[in-house]
Amino acid sequence: MPTGFETPTDSTGIIPLKHTAIRSLVTGGAGFIGTHLCEALLARGHQVICLDNFSTGRESNIAHLRGDPAFTLLCRDVTQALQIEVDEIYNLACPASPAHYARDPVQTVKTSVLGTLNLLELARTTGARLLQTSTSEVYGDPIVHPQTEDYWGHVNPIGPRACYDEGKRCAETLIFDFRRLYGLPLKVARLFNVYGPGMSPGDGRVVSNFAMQALSGEPVTIYGDGQQTRSFCFVSDMIRALIAFMATPPEVTGPLNLGNPAEMRVLDLAETVLRLTGSRSGLAFRPLPCDDPVQRRPDITRARRLLGWAPTVGLDEGLRATLAYFAGQCELPPIPALRPLPPDPVAAEALRAI
């Protein structure tokens, strides 16, 4: 966790902020998606307050923002009550990969439930809009395909993934109960498999795993037979969607599926990564973990209608930018077919545009 940072407060205990622009609180703001969101909001002239406990977020992600006078970093845990003057809240605070939330499942539940409750109380006292980033994991291992927002899911409530799945489901319950009780401007977005530059190399997600293994010449590990499907959304597309959703009228609550409906097998993803890197890595098959979904694809009809949004970055373009990021960030043995790998111009332009 960063040191030497103190949070100033006034005599009431409320953290004062100059109200010269929209004041946006981004919890989990030093994480992968949170960092991109902070950058995009600053580019739009917002005053951004990034809150992170750095359990999975990285100080290096937001180091380049620390000198911006419109950027404030709060080194805090979202499970602690917060008093701060804000206009809108993006709640991204929660470990989002199995490798991370398995380390402390109880804290993962606390982050989703107590953290969301604290932010709802903050929204209630300040009148701030709140956008809760939920997850496709609320659908569990779905038996309805593709998944629409009115599908209730197929979740194992006592399995090793339940701390994340059920924590997010409970957070959604709190959102809608507060909406019914207090009429607050609250929104729920269900995110599907986001990837892109800024991902942590060791976060255990499939794109990170495949990229790092291919770049380092290690066997690319596939759990199960690789026939299970996922849908991958480039981070710039997701940031556009989140900002557009926050800007919708108060009565637009969701939930809203946000993701790329282009579905592919995990085996095909591995082969695509190998093709783009030119890696000679082979494939290594391992047993499928408990409760790993067989299929995952969002129906984004509602997002298209309400936001006028759809993903624009294709998988090859997004993976090229992501692989270039990993190659530049990590000290890896050189692979001639990859180095140097220039970012794909479409993906690079998408990142500049958010």
TrEMBL record:
Please list the GO terms describing molecular function: NAD+ binding; UDP-glucuronate decarboxylase activity
**TM spans (from-to):** none
Q: Might you report a single GO cellular component term?
A: cytoplasm
From the Swiss-Prot or TrEMBL record, state where the protein is found. Answer: Golgi apparatus membrane; Golgi apparatus, Golgi stack membrane
Q: Which InterPro entries match?
A: Epimerase_deHydtase, NAD(P)-bd_dom_sf, UXS-like
Reported cofactor(s): NAD(+)
Q: Does the keyword Lipid biosynthesis apply?
A: no
Alphabetical GO biological process terms: D-xylose metabolic process; UDP-D-xylose biosynthetic process
- Occurrences of domain NAD-dependent epimerase/dehydratase (ranges): 25-251
In the bilayer, the protein is annotated as:
Single-pass type II membrane protein
The name this protein goes by in its record: UDP-glucuronate decarboxylase
For this UniProt record, the keywords arranged alphabetically read as follows:
Decarboxylase, Glycoprotein, Golgi apparatus, Lyase, Membrane, NAD, Signal-anchor, Transmembrane, Transmembrane helix
